[in-house]
Amino acid sequence: MNPAYDADVIIAGAGPAGAAAACHLTRLGASVILLDRAAFPRDKVCGDFVGPSALIELDSLGISQSDGYSKTNIVRRAALFIDGEALIARPFPVIEGLPPYGRVIPRFTLDNFILDAARRAGAKVMELCSLTDFAASADSVCVEVASAKGPFTLRCRQLIGADGGSSAVARLLRGSAPPRRDRFIASRAYFTDVEGPGDQLDVYFGRSSFPGYCWLFPTGNGEANVGLGMALETWPAHNQTPADMLRRLMDEDAALAARLRHAQLRGTVKGWPLITFNPRLPIMSGRVMLIGDAAGLINPLNGEGIQYALLSGRWAAETLAPCLRTNDFSARALAPYAARVESEMRYDMAFSRLIVQLISNRALTPLWIKASKVLAERAHEDANTARIVSGVFAGLLPARDAFKVVGGTMRQALRSFVRKAHTGSRGADDAPPRFHLVREAAKDPAGFARWLKDIAAATIELASQATRNAIRGNRKETAGMAALKPIASVNQFADEDPG
């Protein structure tokens, strides 16, 4: 270690992405300093679902041997409810090499598991310290840090930004905050004495909250994480906060109310912002790279972020390993990280972004709700559709697999609306979709134009990614790709089904 450096790598943010990267890097022989403005263990507002692919990553870090890990709650099924009606409940699909279950682990516990693994591997953790600025040069990065004892400076060979959706590193690297259209907002609360199955993830859609969705994820012992998330930008704009919508759904949604009939709120309802993936924004520059939420690696379709945080932490470490050995931090040497993110994630993110842009048009909410019901009905009748729906939701299958069912679903939903129009159905929600669209467009033509522009941009991005994917011949499912195979063997999970 050159005495001119305080560490080979400084990581701003000790959440799952940062702590995972620190653990991998120190095992590879690098010296690492982890900075975080909080003191651990600390809470982090999240849905808490850790999918099968993420469990593989945790095992590669040694988390499955941590005290208390085996007691975290296992979930094997997912259920969909629309306007209080139960439409489908299915086990997670079986994917070779992956466990047939997920876990719901509160972030207060999960993040501490991963940070302890980084500490055991040799990373130096500096709590109550936050990055305020950095300056990258040809041979180092100088990092300005604020702490309770006053500001100080650290010097490293590489800086990694893992400091969440409001990342200071991302803002400094990109020169601005993320655009509003990339932002989601969500609220979450914990409840005790929750009724119903403890191994089932529930997702609730309703006209009053669409395009947001509500979830109930059991954390074990009759407790559950209950929350609601939605895009910040919708058209027409919504005037309720996720916390308000969540409280309303708890009263109005029959299925959710049934599970919370005798439940007690533990703590308070908390909110937080999410930044979703934007391919136009850089995730690295010079000796600085972004991982996890700081890079916007959140799927806007299902809100999945933990899996991508753990993956990107490992990808960053694997890219940096040869750079640290050869002292080559050139753009060419660091490029494999950005290339890996693009090749493994950009196509799926493009599809998810287009779907979210479409359903952000609240003037067409009756159509989207009908399409969701049609999709659930098709899943009841067709095992492959059910497999795709549950697999995409659980993060086991790539979002682009939904292409196989979306087209037919939308055609069937539109035919239903046409039939209602011809038979003279009453009620605003039964009117043809064009009625709602024309009415709202007349009220806000500028907003409608922005929505069309965003749809066009999302469509072009998806088309370009589909073309690149076809040229590469990369048609494998995400779960079968090398990106999801960690340093440790995955075979041990194939037949495991803990009680």
Q: Short summary of the structure?
A:
The chain is an alpha/beta fold and 499 residues long. It is 40% helix and 22% strand. The protein is built from 13 helices and 18 strands.
Q: If you consult CATH, what is the topology of the largest domain? A: FAD/NAD(P)-binding domain
| Overall average pLDDT | 87
The number of helical runs is: 13
- Overall structural class, as computed from helix and strand content, comes to alpha/beta
Radius of gyration: 23 Å
Write down the domain tally. Answer: 3
**Low-confidence runs:** 475-496
* Count of strand segments: 18
CATH arch. level architecture of the largest domain = 3-Layer(bba) Sandwich
Largest sheet, in brief, is: 8 strands, mixed
CATH domain class of the largest domain? Alpha Beta
Question: Mind telling me the CATH superfamily name of the largest domain?
Answer: FAD/NAD(P)-binding domain
User: How widely separated are the two ends?
Assistant: 47 Å
Question: Which properties best describe this structure?
Answer:
499 residues; alpha/beta; FAD/NAD(P)-binding domain; D-Amino Acid Oxidase, Chain A, domain 2; 3 domains; seven-stranded mixed beta sheet; 22% strand; globular
